[in-house]
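User: Quick one: structure for sequence A, then sequence B.

Assistant: Sequence A:
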Amino acid sequence: MQTAVGNKVVLIGAGDVGVAYAYALVNQGTVDHLAIIDIDADKLEGNVMDLNHGVVWAPSRTRVTVGSYEDCADAALVVICAGSAQRPGETRLDLVGRNMAIMKSITEQVMATGFDGLFLVASNPVDILTYGVWKYSGLASHRVIGTGTVLDTARYRYMLGELFQVAPTSVHAYIIGEHGDTGLPVISSGMAAGVSLRSRAEADETFATRINEIFERTRDAAYHIIDKKGSTSYGIGMGMARITRAIMKNQEVVVAVSALLQGEYGREDIYIGTPAVINRTGIARVVELDLQEKEQEQFDNSVQTLDAILREFF
């Protein structure tokens, strides 16, 4: 088995999310070669042509090609966006039956090539499907990453930034747990422009109400976007590009992803959204936040929700 040392990415699934991710990668010049696999051959060829025509404006050259599973043999990263789409009014957990079989098929085909890189899973329900890819691949858990709550956290930081009238890069707060209805904000450790969210919420009931409303808008954002445009794509595509850059540049930055818990938060054998240090090896370590009692109860509920579905398959 050959070890992947380059910056080649294979993207499986070129729907709205996959194309948004590909566009972000090309714009940022993060990788040398992006090979894309999709069942719609004509549309894929058109997207590849279109992306290549934009490379001239990118900071560095990315070779974008129509891919096949053979491309996985020397890939550093395989990104999975394939799967059945989330329908209006449908929760992410409703998708699990259809998409688990797709993950099994994809993972087995990738591993059959001798693939020795990392997986990044974005298909929903992402926490459960990432666990499936880990099991089906046989790889060490640090080499299988889910997008987890990277988008939830981005939405939360953006909305808090609007509240404080600062750039979201000046907001340090996380959504953890399921990428879905049982995720929770960790207010106890959140900071915006150097201001503790917990301290301010305890001192000002009006502020506490406002940040709770922001979380509700964060939690429900996907449903509103899907109702209006059919899917979410740009936010998650850019979040995936951020994870990819952290891997390829060995940045050791903390990103909210779906990672396997091995005792953190008092839980084991579950992939779930949590901050984690990301570098070239994948998940270098999980960052366990110090949760208040109520937050721990909410997190435990999120774990139980995922576990109840997951144990139907494993």
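Sequence B:
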Amino acid sequence: MVKRQELDKAEQTAQKIEELRQAVLQGGITAVTRGKLLTSISLMKDSLDALSREIDPVRMPDSFFDPTEPRLIGHFVALALIAQERQALKDLTKFYGAGVYAIYYTGDADLYAPISRTETPIYVGKADPNANAKTLIEQGTKLADRLNEHRKSIGKASTTLDIADFECRALAVQSGYQAAAESHLIRLFKPIWNNETRILFGIGKHGDSAETRANNKSPWDTLHPGRKWADANTEAKTAGEIRAEVAKHFAEATIFKRTEDVFAAFAAGIRRADQLGADPEDEVLSED
């Protein structure tokens, strides 16, 4: 019987792989070569996996749900946060737990008009638990403490901000899940006060030490002065430049007006995360 060309090629490929394995095991390789080799092997594995799927008469499902997948856990924790009732930031009381939170603006400042009274937070963050915490009490009051820090910062900026114009959501979570949830919230909402948005960051700063007094003033402290330790710092950008960047951001960003819009975006993100072979970098959500 004449051997099919495809089988002959497969045997030749298997032989070449074995020859490569022997060559690698017998000779020393540099770190640079090792890195390039690992990249090549990874690409070959992807190609072989794709070929296997193409010739298998039984197709793979479009999606596969793995509840232990860290990205999905981040989705669900973030979704649980959005399901919480909003409360006035000024009325926040002490409570146990670490986790994630979101702060919302409800005032009349023109700068924040696009997100005022919407479901798009002005800032999201996480509060990490005490080391080795297993219970809420062991986690400490990290979440409440972090929100209280923000409340104090906003309160000090009383010439431009009114603490009565801010609401928040908070969710205490099992230790270890807060980071993935925060990352997902930032990717989805692109909050204007978050460092990752690179525009109006700085509310999370705790003050400069004597060794770092030469640091530039954060954009947040430039537009919302009041924290004494930041007064002497040099402005990296003018207030006008920052306001222009904020306006451009809001003109281009997705603004979620209703909770229904947020839930729809979460559902779309979960579908993408479930897709086999999905790239984590493609998980950024929007409602374009």
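The first helix runs from residue 5 to 26. Residues 5-55 form one domain.

User: Thanks, that's what I needed.
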